[in-house]
UniProtKB/TrEMBL annotation:
Keyword Membrane in annotation: yes
Nucleotide-binding is among the record's keywords: no
Classification lineage: Bacteria, Pseudomonadati, Pseudomonadota, Gammaproteobacteria, Pseudomonadales
Cellular compartment(s): Cell inner membrane
Membrane topology: Multi-pass membrane protein
UniProt-listed NCBIfam families: stp (TIGR00814)
InterPro entries named in the record: Amino_acid_transport_2 (IPR018227), Hydroxy_aa_transpt (IPR004694)
Pfam families membership: Trp_Tyr_perm
This protein's UniProt keywords: Amino-acid transport, Cell inner membrane, Cell membrane, Membrane, Symport, Transmembrane, Transmembrane helix, Transport
Name under which the protein is recorded: HAAAP family serine/threonine permease
Amino acid sequence: MNDQAKSVDQRFDAAAPAELSSWNRQDTTWMLGLFGTAIGAGTLFLPINAGLGGFWPLVILALLAFPMTFYAHRGLTRFVLSGREGADITEVVEQHFGIKAGALITLLYFFAIFPILLIYSVGLTNTVASFLEHQLHITPPPRALLSFVLILGLLAVVRCGEQAIVKAMSLMVYPFIVALLFLAVYLIPHWNGGILTTASQVPAPSALLHTLWLAIPVMVFSFNHSPIISAFAVDQKRRYGVHAEERSSQILSRAHALMVLMVLFFVFSCVLTLSPEQLAEAKEQNLSILSYLANHFSNPTIAFAAPLIAFVAISKSFLGHYIGASEGLKGLIVKSGKRPSAKALDRIVAAFMLVICWIVATLNPSILGMIETVGGPVIAAILFLMPMYAIRKVPAMARYRGQASNVFVTAVGLVAISALVYKLTM
């Protein structure tokens, strides 16, 4: 390294502690961006899945929500930070585990995230078409045209750059938070405590463990924002250098506290409003909690607000998952031996995403179950197990060894994967 570069690094490191002393606007933007990626369409199904297990499993899941999500995402962030300057997750895997492992993880990373992007494309098109038809009483345009316009609009935000994506997501978070709060508070007068009837019925230990075993993956993936962690860690390292781990942990802890408090308030409000039988009916009808509540109350306000909330939820999750999917696709292209310029690579990836998402959204397949069963175990392995394995094997992460949180994250990861495999083979 030349003297000028050393001087620049010294000035950067000297400035970093001053930056860490106060929270800044960029930190808030990232906090909301992480929130925006995690809290999306899955949140609207969480009250149904979490509430069906009864009172005590729901309470235990609520207590586990923060440590499960925070420690896992902190581990993945630390893993990316352990690589060289500017290296994303696919490059860090290659750096630590070799070229073959890097290529395999890149492939798995892409195929874990990209299908979720496709289902968001389908969901977004369905939501807008339904809103136009049922709420605005307008005949929606042909599906091919509608899906093309919607996806092109989101990709227009993508073309503005990563920082524009994160900023757009953070802006969309505000109305989403307000909407969730409004709905949760609106339901308070309708609380009937139906689920509290199960509080006196303490399940047998075996039944409780079985319920928690199958419910943990639902909780894990309802708060999952691993697709944006790589970009988040790279940006933190660029901004804060050797202090990146400290600041990124602060941002993650605040983001997860916001997620857990907001979502659990929403979940408990919904569960206290509906009986276990009604939750089972919603699951059988394959409806989101908003759609079921709209039908249950026949309330025009909820009926009008539900699709708007779903639109915001799906749009911001689409943007967050796009970052991870495009990162994986770029890694696959580069590892194939082709070396296009950065601009050409961005255009190739954007064109591919537009065409595939448009075709799938137009065809409107039912692929949600496939996403959960095929993508789920891969995401759990990358989010929970890979960083813990790296802590044991990679010298750059040796300082994180011996922490109790490592055992907890590994255990939750194994539970989530085993439950998902069990569901797949049922």
